[in-house]
Amino acid sequence: MLKEMNILIVGVGGQGTILASKILADVAQQQGYDVKVSEIHGMAQRGGSVVTQVRMGEKIYAPIISEGQADIILAFEQLEALRWVHFLKEEGTLIVNRQVIEPVPVLLGLQPYPAGIIEKLKAHVKDVIDLDALDIAGKCGNKKAVNVVLMGVLAKKMNIPREVWDRALDNKVPARFLELNKQAFEAGWMAG
Amino acid sequence: MRALLTGNEAIARGAYEYGVKVAVGYPGTPSTEILENIAKYEGIKAQWSPNEKVAMEVGAGASIGGARVIVTMKHVGVNVAADPLFTFSYTGVNGGLVLISADDPGMHSSQNEQDNRNYARFAKIPMFEPSDSGECKEMMGEALKVSEVYDTPVMLRTTTRIAHSQSLVELKEPGEITVKEYVKDSGKFVMIPAHARQRRVIVEERLARLKEYAESCPFNEIQMRDARVGIIASGAAYQYVREVMPNVSVLKLGMTYPLPEKLIKDFAARVKHLFVVEELDPFLQDQVALMGLKVRGKDLFSNIGELSPKLIAEKFYSLEETRDFVEKAFLAQPQAWALQDNIPVRPPVMCPGCPHRGVFYVLNKMKLTVMGDIGCYTLGTLPPLEAMDACICMGASIGSALGMEKAHPEMRSKIVSVIGDSTFMHSGITGLLDIAYNKGTTATIILDNRTTAMTGHQEHPGTGKTLQQEETFAVDIPKLVQALGIRRIKVVDPFDLDNLQKILAEETEAAEPSVIIAQRPCALLDKSGGKPLTVDAGACIGCKRCMKLGCPALVAGPEKVSVNAALCTGCGLCAQTCNVGAIRKEGEGIA
């Protein structure tokens, strides 16, 4: 049995990180793992920086991941990848969506959006997967499916059979969006 | 069956499984989802009350009537409910009553970080503290039982990490909802001084009996491992300790008031070094120390903010007697490159198309002193709107505006208060009555977006629907305001900036109190939205006036402004701020 796997999902309020964590937790449950998920609601939902922490394994106590303890960080946005990367284990995997969402200080012109984020991450982290998930989601028919594209990439990286993921999608995605999301997941799986 | 539930969902499930009939509260992060989930269970009467005091009173009535009851609120809500709570401690219950206090260490979504365990001691009632979702559910059952056996309201306290974290829970079939017989007993339930003096003694006797119960409470447990180090912990802190120091002995407390003195002394006698690990106040530590035991804790851990596994690891690694027990992985220091100094912060913002934005824009422009309140619109204090001078607690805006006017009569026409529709129902009405009755003259702006937006769109008496989606009447705010004694009442569209400014100027000048109701549904509910706006780059002179709105759909380029069409709802506020007519709806010509 898997001793322990820590996954940090980071992004911007409104990007759909919560559905992603639900799918992941469902997968963990199907595998018979103990699982804990932690997220913060409230004011942070209004376009702020959001983080969801998923821990799975034989026996999990704390619901939160400590700095330097994440096996995988799934970043829905570049700047958020940079903001949270210090939570990654030295040998961990960073999956980063190249999408840019400018925070208010940048929109107001008070601060620049940092340049060369992806290059910087690649220079320091051995295992970086970067992709334009927004574009891939758009090609699948709806840019809102960007979260499920990224789940596909994450799924490919984890050592869990594909059919478990498919069942998790069936369990967690509302029926009317299921077809679109299955396509998006497949596209992510292929891109990963 | 095992299900993955948040602490809030598990509390709701516990209420269902253990026969709760009445569930009542007021929304507030991180407590909100408890009632939202209870509302779905058949057989339970669930409702939002206008505020926590009323919720507590409804709960007390249902309990006196014999039903099992859950009352939910966030930590600051207990301040509002404290008046009925303290006396309900004297009367005791008929059907079991559990008051949930969802505390917020670290203030993820709150204006302060009070430790509501202190309320249990203050009100002299028992306190339960679950450490994961499974315990949230099971402690509901135990707390209801304790409430009935010991004739007392019971508090169950979660923190954000418990309320909003998910863990696996074993689901059981719900028990039957039984309502006890109601028998009139004024000696117990009417707290005139003569009766209260009798009950006062019973409260102390009850506490003594509860102390006995605490010794055998199934949620208080000694876990002996290595006897050199013993740690007392509850809630999330317990889980962190187990993770970071898997081999030390632990006294896990699920009931944290009153404390099991014998159990604690027994544990202390069996370990060499005794510690308490707890978030916020030294609530446990002080009581343990008063038992005459040598204990450490708050000299290592701050009484500010949340604990974390890493923090606990670092502190215990710094002590010789505990160093060897710490899992080294938690000491890993982030690499320097990964800690960036200049990452732009990403604060929460008012949504694109938010109807409150225009009001704050005008308030800022008019340089008014704005006494504010709790809700999304508190964000009107952040740059670039920066249009709020104070914000204390739910409902404080109107009263504090009156106070400001009493202190500075010469500022009369410069002071306004802003309050949301839900907050006005919660505790703004009495403040407005005070302004009318005590001859204040400030203008009160009710930001009426037809919902409780901040916590995720709950119903309130102005929306015309109950929590369980029954149709009901909707309060007519203008008529209500009129009945409170306000004669000047204006209803305005917050998207019409010129008119808004004109009305504000008139109403602040008036020598009597006035109410301006800025009415537009929340942008997250109103999906009707117009076409996005565009900027004519040829016409834009780069003055960036429109950027003062702080709308996330507007992007300030080095010279010109542009619109992010994916975010823009077409509210048109920015077009009104543009002096050169460069911003317009798609397909429209230059004005």
TrEMBL record, chain A:
Any matching Pfam family: POR
Domain (Pyruvate/ketoisovalerate oxidoreductase catalytic): residue spans on this chain: 13-188
Domain of life: Bacteria
GO MF term list: oxidoreductase activity, acting on the aldehyde or oxo group of donors
Keywords carried by this UniProt record: Oxidoreductase, Pyruvate
SUPFAM superfamilies named in the record: Pyruvate-ferredoxin oxidoreductase, PFOR, domain III
InterPro entries reported in the protein's UniProt record: IorB_Oxidoreductase, Pyrv/ketoisovalerate_OxRed_cat, Pyrv_flavodox_OxRed_cen
PANTHER family (alphabetical): INDOLEPYRUVATE OXIDOREDUCTASE SUBUNIT IORB
Protein name listed in UniProt: Indolepyruvate ferredoxin oxidoreductase
UniProtKB/TrEMBL annotation, chain B:
Co-factor(s): [4Fe-4S] cluster
Ligand binding ([4Fe-4S] cluster 1): 540, 543, 546, 578
Annotated cofactor note: Binds 2 [4Fe-4S] clusters. In this family the first cluster has a non-standard and varying [4Fe-4S] binding motif CX(2)CX(2)CX(4-5)CP.
Superkingdom in the source lineage: Bacteria
Reaction catalysed by this enzyme: indole-3-pyruvate + 2 oxidized [2Fe-2S]-[ferredoxin] + CoA = (indol-3-yl)acetyl-CoA + 2 reduced [2Fe-2S]-[ferredoxin] + CO2 + H(+)
Domain 4Fe-4S ferredoxin-type per the UniProt entry, residue ranges: 531-552, 559-588
EC id: 1.2.7.8
InterPro entries associated with the record: 4Fe4S_Fe-S-bd, HACL1-like, IorA, Pyrv_Fd/Flavodoxin_OxRdtase_N, THDP-binding, TPP_enzyme_TPP-bd, Transketo_C/PFOR_II
GO MF annotations in UniProt: 4 iron, 4 sulfur cluster binding; indolepyruvate ferredoxin oxidoreductase activity; metal ion binding; thiamine pyrophosphate binding
Keywords for this protein: 4Fe-4S, Electron transport, Iron, Iron-sulfur, Metal-binding, Oxidoreductase, Pyruvate, Transport
Role played: Catalyzes the ferredoxin-dependent oxidative decarboxylation of arylpyruvates.
Subunit description: Heterodimer of the IorA and IorB subunits.
PANTHER family for the chain: 2-HYDROXYACYL-COA LYASE, INDOLEPYRUVATE FERREDOXIN OXIDOREDUCTASE ALPHA SUBUNIT
Protein name: Indolepyruvate oxidoreductase subunit IorA
Species: Thermincola ferriacetica
